[in-house]
Amino acid sequence: MVLRSAAALLRGAKTATQRELYYMDTNLFAGGQAQCNAAILTVSALLREPRHCLGVVASSRGFYTGRLRTRHAAGGGGGGGDGGGGGDWHDPRTAGGTGASVNSDWISHALEAESDAQFLLVVEKDGAFARLSEDRFYDRLPCIIVTGQGFPPVAVRAMVRALQSALNLPAYGLVDCGPFGLSLLLTYVHGGARMGEQAAHYTADVKWLGLRPSQLDALDLPAQAYAPQSDNDQRRARTLAESIHVTARPELEAEVDYWSRGGYKVCIG
Q1: Which residues belong to any copy of the Spo11/DNA topoisomerase VI subunit A N-terminal domain (predicted)?
Q2: One domain for residues 119 and 140
């Protein structure tokens, strides 16, 4: 069904979201949206082509703001525009505190970018992103702020990679001090395991800016800042402890060991 739908989309020069594909035959995907997404990834791996080359895109999730203007590159399908470019410039700051949404253009189109930012700030939580955006943090420290609203979809990862490459900027990850925060950060750095060889196309060098377990004692945080780990947290800590991306880096092993032994987590935003 996925192959048939992809062929129809490509013949018609159209796209469909993963959600739309799922609703084309909900009886087939008895396991829900997750089963549909897995089938799409399987087809992508089988054909050795990224998902957007099948005409399938993720629903928009993720926002960005800060010192950045973008437009479609000349000949990139944007149409019109000034100065020989591919369209009008877009500034996410005009969207107010919510920022601009990240869409699949970052995967499937060539974009031009202009910025005087000094770094990229990748934020895990909506709340932290909203506060930084509303306070116009990017005017105090010139930067571009991005959130994937939790684990980042491919479009957000593609955006971070594209901006880091085009603008030659360092990137920093502000994530929770917990197993899922580190796991999210490693998704930006190494890609999603389910994407196979395609994962490498959507990775970036994002440094861990957020709080680490090894720093907790020195900070003397109030008791209410700490939260006990859930069963899911502890399972994720055990998974991290066995990950090659952690075992290859002793400094990460030490942090993960704290959570594996049942230490607390500290959430940001």
Answers
A1: 2-56
A2: yes
Higher pLDDT, 203 or 105: 203
Residues 127, 259, single domain; the answer is yes
pLDDT value for 65: 95
Comparing 49 with 123, the larger pLDDT belongs to: 123
Catalytic residue among 23, 188, 202, 258: 23
Query: For residue 60, what pLDDT is reported?
Result: 59
- In angstroms, the Cα distances linking 240 to 114, 137, 177, 227 are 37, 32, 14, 19
Q: Name, in order, each residue with C-beta under 8 angstroms of 94's C-beta and a sequence gap of 6 or more.
A: none
Spatial neighbors of 218 by CB under 8 A, at least 6 apart, are none
Distances (CA, A) of 104 to 59, 84, 145, 213, 249: 8, 23, 18, 35, 33
User: DSSP assignment of 11-33, as one string?
Assistant: HTT--EEHHHHHHH-TTT-TT-H
Predicted local confidence at residue 81, as pLDDT: 38
Domain count, the chain: 2
**Best mean pLDDT range from 58-67, 118-127, 196-205:** 118-127
State which of 35, 57, 79 marks the end of a domain: 57
Query: Is 23 noted as a catalytic residue in this protein?
Result: yes
Query: Domain with 13 in it: what CATH number?
Result: 1.10.10.10
Q: Phi and psi at residue 42, in whole multiples of 5°?
A: -65, -45
**Given this model, what pLDDT does residue 32 score?**
82
Query: How is residue 210 written in tokens?
Result: 């957020």
The domain that holds 220 is classified in CATH as 3.40.1360.10
Statement to judge: residues 42 and 90 lie in one domain: no
How do strand 171-174 and strand 119-123 relate by DSSP bridges?
parallel
Domain that holds residue 75: 63-266
